């Protein structure tokens, strides 16, 4: 009887339909409200930040910057990951303008690299930048990394006062191995030169550092005796790194695959030199994204994809904008000991 009256009443059917539709609508609405509230006000778990997206990364301070102002070099190291793809060098005044912008953005340490930084204008361009950074910008730390082959005593007399640290790269204490690597120009002795520069550093009060790249040609060497004798403030030991477009892949000027060593081989080398107190190891993992690298156009180079992707130039868009595309991993920078006593005024140079 009840059923028949319900079936018979179109009004009741209509009401039933309306209440069902309202019910579905309310349920959808509550879900939408939950999502929007969660995302906008943070009451639900927010989506993980995309660390690859510049918007999601906090502002980076360019505390320590590596400026590769030239790509040209007189050596032919087979593993080199910063090759002569252009011969461009900024005019001096533009380079100074960029350095000033970096200082204003928080730079404390500048390292000049290349290519070979002493090649351009026989080291005068480099000397002027070193002097500018110390005297005009008053940077706590000014350093250079060089193969050492072009440095003259005259340079130390003129610019030594303004330089905190000079790093010379030396991968072997065996001349033949240096020849095989390409860490040489003609038959000149790379090692004799290293000792000569070490003495000039002592004489002109510049902290002396050594960089070595561990690769298939030197991985079995024991350098303990020579390093202890040279007594650098730091001995940076790098695991040979591949960078697409530089020393690997089709567009590259070097083929460094035959130089690459595994993590275990790198560890063996480090264990053999465990007694060298100034040793600072840098595996591929530590090295890849822990440097702020500026190229010859003052563009930051992002190595996260295994190649060097350039930002826009600091000179065109300023530091804040350019640095968003640097791929810099500040945590790894700190983990690898990137911040250390880097001003010679704070070091006890016991020579
Ligand atoms: C590109 S070089 C430029 C400065 C200078 N020409 C020199 O060799 O010291 C800067 C530093 O990177 C190191 N280096 C070059 N290629 C490398 C690679 N494939 N893996 C790790 N370090 C490398 C060099 O030995 C040097 O210490
Ligand atoms: S690593 Fe060798 S080839 Fe590369 S820039 Fe330095 S000296 Fe030149």
From TrEMBL:
It is found in: Endoplasmic reticulum membrane. The keyword Cytoplasm does not apply. GO terms for molecular function: 4 iron, 4 sulfur cluster binding; catalytic activity; metal ion binding. Keywords: 4Fe-4S, Antiviral defense, Endoplasmic reticulum, Immunity, Innate immunity, Iron, Iron-sulfur, Membrane, Metal-binding, S-adenosyl-L-methionine, Transmembrane, Transmembrane helix. Residues 59-279 form the Radical SAM core domain. GO terms for cellular component: endoplasmic reticulum membrane; lipid droplet; mitochondrion. Its main location: endoplasmic reticulum. The chain crosses the membrane at residues 12-29. The keyword Cell membrane does not apply. SUPFAM superfamilies: Radical SAM enzymes. GO terms for biological process: defense response to virus; innate immune response; positive regulation of immune response. Its cofactor is [4Fe-4S] cluster. It comes from the Eukaryota. InterPro entries: Aldolase_TIM, Elp3/MiaA/NifB-like_rSAM, RSAD2, RSAD2/Viperin_antiviral, rSAM, rSAM_sf. It is a peripheral membrane protein. Belongs to the radical SAM superfamily. RSAD2 family. This is S-adenosylmethionine-dependent nucleotide dehydratase RSAD2. It comes from Kryptolebias marmoratus (Mangrove killifish).
């Amino acid at each position: 009887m009840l059923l028949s009256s319900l079936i018979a009443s179109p009004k009741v059917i209509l009401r039933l339909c309306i209440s069902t539709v309202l019910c579905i609508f309310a349920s959808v609405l509550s879900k939408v409200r939950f999502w929007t509230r969660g995302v906008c006000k943070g009451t639900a778990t927010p989506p993980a930040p995309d660390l690859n997206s510049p918007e999601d990364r906090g502002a980076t301070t360019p505390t320590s910057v590596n400026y590769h102002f030239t790509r040209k070099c007189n050596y032919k190291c087979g593993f080199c990951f910063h090759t002569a793809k252009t011969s461009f060098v900024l005019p001096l005044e533009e380079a100074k303008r960029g350095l000033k912008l970096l200082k204003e953005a928080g730079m404390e340490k500048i390292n000049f690299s290349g290519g070979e930084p002493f090649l351009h204008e026989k080291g005068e361009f480099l000397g002027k930048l070193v002097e500018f950074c110390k005297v005009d910008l008053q940077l706590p730390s000014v350093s250079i990394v060089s193969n050492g082959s072009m440095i003259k005593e005259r340079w130390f007399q003129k610019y030594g006062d303004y330089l905190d640290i000079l790093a010379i790269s030396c991968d072997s204490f065996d001349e033949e191995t240096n020849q095989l690597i390409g860490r040489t120009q003609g038959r000149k002795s790379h090692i004799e030169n290293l000792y000569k520069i070490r003495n000039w550093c002592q004489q002109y009060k510049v902290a002396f550092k050594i960089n070595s790249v561990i690769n298939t040609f030197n991985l079995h060497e024991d350098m303990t005796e020579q390093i202890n004798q040279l007594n650098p403030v730091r001995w940076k030991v790098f695991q040979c790194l591949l960078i697409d477009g530089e020393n690997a892949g089709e567009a590259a000027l070097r083929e460094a695959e035959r130089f690459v060593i595994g993590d275990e081989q790198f560890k063996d080398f480090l264990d053999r030199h465990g007694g060298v107190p100034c040793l600072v190891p840098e595996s591929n993992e530590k090295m890849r994204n822990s440097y702020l690298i500026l190229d010859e156009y003052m563009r930051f180079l992002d190595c996260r994809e295994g190649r060097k992707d350039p930002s826009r130039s600091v000179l065109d868009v300023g530091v804040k904008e350019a640095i968003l595309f640097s791929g810099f991993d500040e945590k790894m920078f700190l983990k690898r000991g990137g911040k250390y006593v880097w001003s010679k005024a704070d070091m006890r140079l016991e020579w």
